Amino acid sequence: MGPQQDRRSMANGTRKETKVVVVVQYRECQRNHAASIGGYAVDGCREFMASGADGTAAALLCAACGCHRSFHRREVEPDCDCSSTTTG
Prior knowledge:
Oligomer: single chain
């Protein structure tokens, strides 16, 4: 899961709080394993799977292919909860 952001706005004396939760998923590996010999070959890893627990260095390595998370395609999906409204 990604970071959570608060957005507040004032309209007609009403304060509306909107929480936006950003869901980030890492998909297939795009690392070119044959770049050093002038070719092009990917390993076929379909989705990033963390090697360790969150907050550790191993969490950034894929258990399937051994690549760093940055080699995997990043997919961002905003999930907006626009139902919370408070007056004040």
